[in-house]
């Protein structure tokens, strides 16, 4: 999944270490299902075949895809697990320092859209309506993996645990004697601070560490599915939610939508969020939901 996972478990040393090893193995198996960094993952293989006829997929892949489509609809299409063709154009643009031309964008657009992904729960199969479609779980896979890992630790008897999937956090009960896990947000900015949290999830998107600059404009690696190119505002979105997959999905979606729409989105999905946005030539804006720790 292109990231480093970190697990913290409180308990007796040996059983805790054994539990963590078991969970790391599960994460490796998940990687084999969800990754788009490897050609032989179940996701990549399924996409290659699922347009000819419905392709039966594993319960895990089915669950993540179904969640991705549902979150896509819930965010009005801001989160779109079919954006892969746009992501590939973006990578090329980054390499060539030139925006994709309108024809390339139009061609990619034919292969993008969550309405072109058909899941059949009865046969547990995936069908892609158009050849050349590619699915991208980059915006939700790490969150899903963090949730699964925390659940596994809990079922092994370690309630006081946390999983860090490259910045997407799933938090269990606090460390013994503490009020919560200390979570740093806004690192490297003038808004750096510590939150104390437990039994919830936190994810951040943005911060401008991945961008391409063309003709003096910075484009993010987060794509606006309506235009097919990276968003041009800078900043970050941090979401606190019950599950890490939702925090991960919403953090990405909040980077896409206009700030005024973000509030309605977070309210509708009952999550807490903080969006920091710098648009070219404008003052930095910050919008926080009432329940987000100030
Ligand atoms: P995240 O770091 O969680 O915000 O996810 C960013 C990654 O998700 C990118 O590197 C792309 O692979 C993918 N992506 C980019 N834009 C979108 C989008 N609008 N919806 C879903 N996935 C996206
Ligand atoms: Mg995300």
Task: Describe it.
It is a single chain. The protein is of the alpha+beta class and 294 residues long. The chain is built from 8 helices and 14 strands. A 7-stranded antiparallel sheet has the order 1-5-6-9-12-13-14, covered by helices on one side. A hairpin with a 4-residue loop joins strand 3 (117-120) and strand 4. Helix 3 packs across helix 7 (244-256). The chain is globular. The two termini are 32 Å apart. The relative contact order is 0.14. It binds adenosine monophosphate and magnesium ion. Adenosine monophosphate binds next to helix 7.
**Radius of gyration computed on alpha carbons:** 19 Å
Q: Low-confidence runs (pLDDT<50, min 5 residues)? A: none
Question: What hetero molecules are bound to the protein chains?
Answer: adenosine monophosphate, magnesium ion
**Which geometry do the CA atoms define?**
globular
Mean of pLDDT: 94
Order of strands, main sheet, comes to: 1-5-6-9-12-13-14
The helix fraction, in percent, is: 25-40%
Structural class: alpha+beta
Count every helix, treating DSSP H or I runs of 4 or more residues as helices: 8
Topology:
Blueprint: E1 5-9, H1 13-34, H2 42-49, E2 55-56, H3 59-74, H4 84-96, H5 102-109, E3 117-120, E4 125-128, H6 141-155, E5 161-165, E6 168-171, E7 181-185, E8 193-197, E9 200-206, E10 211-214, E11 217-220, E12 234-241, H7 244-256, H8 259-268, E13 272-278, E14 285-288
Antiparallel strand pairs: 1-5, 2-4, 3-4, 5-6, 6-9, 7-8, 9-12, 10-11, 12-13, 13-14
Helix pairs in contact: 1-6, 3-7, 6-7
The structure holds adenosine monophosphate and magnesium ion.
Residues 139, 203, 205, 248-249, 251-252 line the site of magnesium ion.
